[in-house]
């Protein structure tokens, strides 16, 4: 009886820690596909450079449903981080999550050219406007001097 309880406890802890480690494991969609398929990130990005979406790559490898689930979790964790840091309000975070839930349910893996992307609507692809148009770039000024206010 004790041995059985120990096994159940061990398995439960493994499941718990595997879920908790998710956020630390993936930091972009290519890593999610890589983790699900065993392909390298370089292979995934090579397919992206050929015009395929991450969703199409996941479909071709038979992991589309798990990819959608993992992407939803990944994006919600980013939103939670932004709410916790004060970058966005809790209300805006909830609105974005609601929109994500609706979009993921209808996601086919192929972009709809007639539909705004959530990143365009809610803050530039989860960057949430951190630069705020303050000219924070350090480029050469597009031929307008050297970029030092000239």
UniProtKB/TrEMBL annotation:
This protein's UniProt keywords: Signal
Region listing for Disordered, in residue ranges: 127-150
Matches recorded under InterPro entries: DUF2680
N-terminal signal peptide: 1-23
Origin superkingdom: Bacteria
The organism of origin for this protein: Thermanaerosceptrum fracticalcis
Keyword Signal appears in the UniProt entry: yes
Name the UniProt record assigns to this protein: DUF2680 domain-containing protein
Pfam families tied to this protein: DUF2680 (PF10925)
């Amino acid at each position: 009886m004790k041995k059985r309880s120990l096994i159940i406890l061990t398995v439960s802890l493994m499941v718990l820690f595997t879920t908790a480690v998710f956020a630390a494991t993936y930091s972009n969609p290519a890593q999610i596909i890589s983790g699900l398929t065993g392909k390298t990130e370089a292979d995934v990005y090579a397919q992206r450079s050929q015009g395929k979406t991450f969703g199409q790559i996941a479909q071709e490898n038979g992991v589309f449903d798990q990819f959608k689930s993992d992407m939803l979790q990944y994006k919600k964790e980013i939103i939670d981080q932004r709410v916790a840091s004060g970058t966005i309000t809790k209300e805006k975070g909830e609105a974005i999550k609601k929109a994500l839930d609706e979009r993921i349910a209808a996601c086919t893996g192929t972009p709809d050219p007639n539909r705004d992307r959530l990143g365009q609507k809610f803050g530039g692809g989860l960057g949430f406007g951190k630069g705020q148009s303050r000219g924070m770039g350090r480029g050469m000024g597009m031929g307008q001097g050297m970029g030092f206010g000239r």
